[in-house]
Design goal:
mainly alpha
């Protein structure tokens, strides 16, 4: 099998999964933002903590570090700060992905967009979508596959779709 063909199919497959999971992505993003707000509120409660003092005690032959109450609170705050940073990174990545997908879908003509949404995003079967759009099931699959290829190109660029690079743009 040609290596380029494999990558091309992988991008197509990823794009289809993105489209099928778009609503789940949106719900996940909302939930992550709720978690972010909750964690931010928890961190605001730590603002009145005094500076830590360090005390070290030797328990056995090995040195053990014993944290005071203040140090323990500071360590919990540090961990929550770290968790909040990771959460914000996830939110940013997911939000960016959703925006890219939405922008790509918006670039499609209205009729094509409705077909794509009915079939892939909302999970309709080809028979129902064909009846609703007054075309055959084969046409639904064909048009949907063409749209997925277009969206793949918009999401991943020319490396994802086979494009003839010998074309000229005219003004």
């Amino acid at each position: 099998m040609n290596r380029d063909f494999t990558y091309y199919n992988d991008y197509i497959r990823i794009t289809k999964q993105y489209l099928k999971n778009l609503n789940a992505f949106r719900v996940t993003l909302k939930n992550l933002r709720l978690e972010e707000a909750s964690l931010q509120k928890e961190l605001e409660d730590y603002d009145d903590i005094p500076s830590p003092t360090v005390s070290y005690q030797e328990k056995t032959a090995k040195a053990a570090i014993e944290l005071t109450n203040v140090e323990a609170v500071v360590e919990r705050r540090r961990r929550k700060d770290q968790r909040l940073r990771k959460l914000r990174e996830k939110i940013t990545r997911l939000d960016t992905l959703i925006r890219k997908i939405d922008n790509s879908i918006e670039a499609l003509p209205d009729e094509e967009r409705k077909l794509l949404e009915a079939y892939l995003i909302y999970g309709g079967n080809t028979g129902d979508v064909a009846r609703a759009t007054y075309c055959s099931e084969r046409t639904v699959r064909y048009r949907t596959n063409n749209m997925v290829r277009q969206i793949t190109g918009m999401l991943f660029g020319s490396e994802a779709v086979s494009v003839d690079e010998d074309f000229v743009f005219a003004e």
